[in-house]
Amino acid sequence: LFVVVVLLCKGCGFFVLGIVGGAIGGAALAAVGVYFWTTRPAHREALGPSDEDRVVAYEGLKVHVPGGAIPKERSLAISPGKPPKDAPSVVSPWEVSLDGDVEAPIGIEVPVGLPRGARRVDLGGVTWDPGAKRWRSLESEVNPRTGALTLYTSHFSLFAARVSPPLVPHPTLRVDADD
User: Fold this and answer.
1) In angstroms, rounded to a whole number, what is the distance separating the alpha carbons of residues 59 and 62?
2) 99, 75 Cβ separation under 8 angstroms
């Protein structure tokens, strides 16, 4: 590019350099914009200390914050996650983050679209462990009345529901009376 600038003309070199710089700057700005557009949370909300229970809802996901769980002003961010290709039993992923610690576990009610043939009794909650590069089970419960899955956590990352296959004994399984 420098050679092109020199060949064009000495007087308009600044103008051409300005265009080249603008193109490079524009490309860099577009790359940064795309990065922030794809990584920005879909919903952000400020949470301050409170003795009352609160619920933050976004697109069917509900974050249940018990009274006294937030010791000082925090920012809660919620974004839909991408379903993992290598774990078909993991469904309804969500990225939930909170900038700081909490004093009590927070409940994350995950909207679950069950795969064909799955039952709500086969549901459980998982979180992604980036260090181990695997999904880890979380304490969770299914509301028998509504069928909603609630995960309980005091740290924040990528959360999802896992649909376990029903337990079917092998035809040659032997169970002794002592077992």
Assistant:
1) 8
2) yes
Query: DSSP readout, 19-42?
Result: HHHHHHHHHHHHHHHHHHHHHS-S
Q: What is the pLDDT of residues 2-60, one digit of tens each?
A: 333 333 333 333 333 344 455 554 444 344 333 334 445 789 999 999 999 999 999 99
Closest listed residue to residue 157, CA positions, set 134, 123, 124: 134
pLDDT at 167: 56
Whole-number Å distance between alpha carbons of 78 and 95: 6
For residue 131, the 8-state DSSP code is T
Task: Convert the pLDDT of each residue in 118-164 to its tens digit.
Answer: 777 788 999 998 889 889 999 999 887 777 899 999 988 899 999 88
> Which tokens belong to 151?
């995960």
Cα–Cα nearest to 155, from 106, 93, 83? 106
- Cα–Cα distances (Å) from 177 to 93, 174, in that order, read 42, 10
Backbone angles phi, psi at 24, to 5 degrees: -65, -45
The model's pLDDT over 44-93, given as tens digits with 9 standing for 90+, comes to: 999 999 999 999 999 999 999 999 999 999 999 999 998 788 787 888 89
Task: Give 10's Cβ-side CA count (13 Å radius).
Answer: 0
CA 40/CA 158 separation, integer angstroms: 14
* 120 DSSP assignment: G
